[in-house]
Design brief:
By secondary structure, the chain is mainly alpha-helical. It has two helices and no strands.
């Protein structure tokens, strides 16, 4: 389950980062930071899922 959750969170983070350019300036900064954070969490979940540590 952690592997699939990680992939979903990673995809959401990448989409959020990609859409950030179309938002107003303040929202762009927030969306980019949130996108990067979600992508990092997604990668961590994927690695943990691959190692067999499920949440």
């Amino acid at each position: 389950m952690g592997l699939i959750d990680g992939i979903i969170v990673l995809i959401i983070g990448v989409i959020l980062y990609a859409v950030a350019g179309m938002l107003p300036p303040v929202a762009t900064k927030i969306a980019r930071i949130l996108g990067i954070v979600l992508a990092i969490i997604g990668v961590i979940l994927i690695v943990l899922g691959a190692l067999g540590i499920a949440f």
